[in-house]
Amino acid sequence: MTTDFPTVQPDTPIADAIRIFRESAHQSGRRLFGLIVTDENHHLAGMLSMYDILLYVRPKHIQVWGTMEDINVAGLIDAAGRRLKSILVGDIMTPDVVTIGPNVDLFMILDIMIKKHIRRLPVIEEQRIIGIVYISDLFNHLLEQIDN
Amino acid sequence: MEQANTLQNLTVSRAMRRQVICLEKNKSINHGISIIIKHKTNALLVVDSHRQPAGVVSKTDIMGAYYAGLPIDSPLEYIMVSPPLFCKSKDSLETALEQMRTNKVYRLYVTDPDAEDLVGALAYPDIVGLLYQYCHQCPYSHLNRKKHANETDPLLRFKVRELMTRGVKSIPLHETLTSVMEALSEYRFGAILVADEDGLPTGVISKTDLALTYKHGVSPSVTAQEVMCTPVHTCDAESLLEEAIKKMIMADIHRLFVYEDQEDTIAGVLSLSDAARGRSGSCHGCISSRIKVEDHE
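ok -> structure tokens follow
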């Protein structure tokens, strides 16, 4: 479990969340793909993944003009930028997040991650989020043990 | 040249979207708005605990909840309209469009031919998208003809003027969101123009904007000026329908305000639904282009 992770609030502008994603990409160590969203009581409110943002940026009618050549790509990027301006984290985050308690068995975590296609699981104790289990950490930890 | 119906012989499965956006009926309106915003859809299918379709919640229903002051944590089942309307994937697009018009809805859910499994959703913009795709591939298309600009164009092409809805309503900058919602509801519009003291168009408020203000906890007593979107997307009444549809599809917008003569004289509005109701491609020579398209397939 990792206890060092950035969080955002539902009323954080998406632009700020994007900045956190991008800064993490330039730092050594872990790259972020999902951000924990907490409310004013530090309770888990949801998760904002890169996928949520990409889903929002994807033009609605891409299937219509995906194969066309006369597309004004710069114009499309401008339009996506304009759309992102007025959006807050809470508008596009995923509010239903699967969580675990601190005493859940490793293989149970593995099972949850596989069955539900989840790559990160917030760990909750007494309604407070105390850490995250990343699939990469689970992989390294488990395989290290198997190796031994 | 004989005028033809481009939608002839096409089935629902050709135009529908296979991803059906749905949410359980005990989930909050707040959650529903997130889904609608993220997936850029106008409505979501509400399902019961057995994942069976129970109703539909559209942006109009969300606006109604905002207007009525319903707490945003209320479950979707409070505001859903049921039952959802269905068509079958093998139905002709003609039949589906007729069903949409008769029932005054903009969306149908699609089942397999045995009416057992849900396989998709059909909405006006998707039909327009399909038509645009055909037009784009057609050798008679205006976009393809640009390469032969010196030749005279033998085809009569639809202009925005022919399909736009005339008589655009607008609301003054200082009006409240409550008035905006009353106007949208009365005229059955998806968006309304916001005009300054001189009547010049300055912004637009759509049902999507209202869903976001509801979600952000903004009071319906704030003025139109505070939440309107700028600039107003416009086009000339004399421009070709093909160009107007392209503009809408590319910019992810549902309507263009149409000006005549001068850019600040808005005479009408063209929505993607208007274009779909036109039930044709963008030129009068569709029968030829349809055959061409099929030859390629």
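Residues 12-123 of chain B form a domain with the CBS-domain fold (CATH 3.10.580.10).
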